[in-house]
Amino acid sequence: MNDRDPSRALRGRRRFLARIGAALGALGVAGCDRLSQSEWFPRVLDSAERLNERVAKLVTGRKAMAQEYGPADLSPTFRSNGTAEPNNAEYAALASNGFADYALDVGGLVAKPRRFTLAELRALPSRTQITRHDCVEGWSAIGKWQGARLSAVLDAVQPTPAARYVVFHCADPMEDDGESPYYESIDMDDAYHEQTLLAYALNDRPLPIPNGAPIRLRVERQLGYKHAKYVMRLELVESFAHIGEGKGGYWEDQGYQWYAGI
Amino acid sequence: MHWINVVALTLMFMSGLQIFNSHPALYWGASSYTGRPAWLEIGARQDGQGRMSGYTRVLGREFTTTGILGLSTDDGRAYAQGFPSWLTVPSHQWLSMARSWHFFFAWIFLVNGLCYVLYVIGSRHLARDLWPTRLDIRGIGASIVDHLRFRHPTGEAAKRYNVLQKFAYLSVIFVLLPLVVLMGLGMSPRLDTLFGGWVDWFGGRQSVRSLHFIIAWLLIAFVLVHVFEVVVTGLWNNVRSMITGRYRVPQESVHE
Prior knowledge:
Chain A contains seven helices and ten strands. With 262 residues, chain A is an alpha+beta fold.
């Protein structure tokens, strides 16, 4: 051993330790990325989703009401996220006519399938509520919604006992080639919930196109992506495995959680 | 239990930063659109010559944070990203996967944490070792001076937690950790339905998101000090005592 300068040796050691630390950190992050891309690991992670759903419903109760606000809390403008104008000729034709020819088609596992014009939807028992919209990205906005109660629509069509979910088929394609229409699904607890609406008005005006005209879903105890816009057709199903990629919604097919109450 | 906690909290912190990155701004109040600006915002912008830069705005004051916050560079390509990829899980923008990591390890953390609390109470570790005695409280002043001068207890005193250590551990275990969980739950639109809007007790949903973020960083600050103290008071001896319970009392160094 030669007589090395101790402070230099110490600096060398510190540099060495720092490099080891950085290498371990990179290894950890890279390892997490590899796990994220594997087939099995995300399935393990998503086992927590069922638990989240069960516990959240158990703790709050089936009929728990989302918080409502006063007019002073309204956001100056209600942010439009995702599609602002559906790239769909059929929809554009309806819009050009102020949605006078629009009709909501309700079918699937129901005793009396039928169509509802906007006037018929407006004539159904309605509800007006000022609620907070929480986007999965993290922001929130507060808006005043008016719409037909989904329970009133269901009472009119009479779901069969086999029906477990309501699927919302929408007019907005999620790909540039006009494919992959947006869709969403909710269970019957949410479908019959008092605050679940087919909304036709936002802040006392007819629902604007960027916010989902003529009809959008409000399902207040879940995150924003569940609130399907541009709703054209409701389908009552026992399982949504045959729709899209089978996960119950456009974003669910991209890996987002079906239960978006958390 | 401690090491399960280290893994779970690390992964929750890193996946939490990835979740934050999908909307890198924090607000006070129920919503993000109250007319008041965000109190914290991280972003990227382009100047007249097409040069990109990252910025961080805190309470109206703006800092250029290119390369760390707002704008990261990877293989010579610059891209907008709140926290850099080496701090997040997954490393690149992938919100749904980050949520999956976060919620899975939240359960591990919660179950582990509850087991730990039961253990410290049941084993009387809480009453015997963690709870400050009257003697401890009287010695606070001296302990602060000792810490500031980096003088650490030797002999038998080194086997016990000192008073500042006790307060630090107790506030992390019984204040910060429960609060960070509560603020996390407060972001759930379903759990918000309890007690007619309990989230407003903490300032509203966006305030709760802010508090969740702030407490997470307070926990990181605790970890940094904690690791620093473990290292400077004898890394090997401490880690061995953390795992096996065996702690060798250091010999008093002989003065020349």
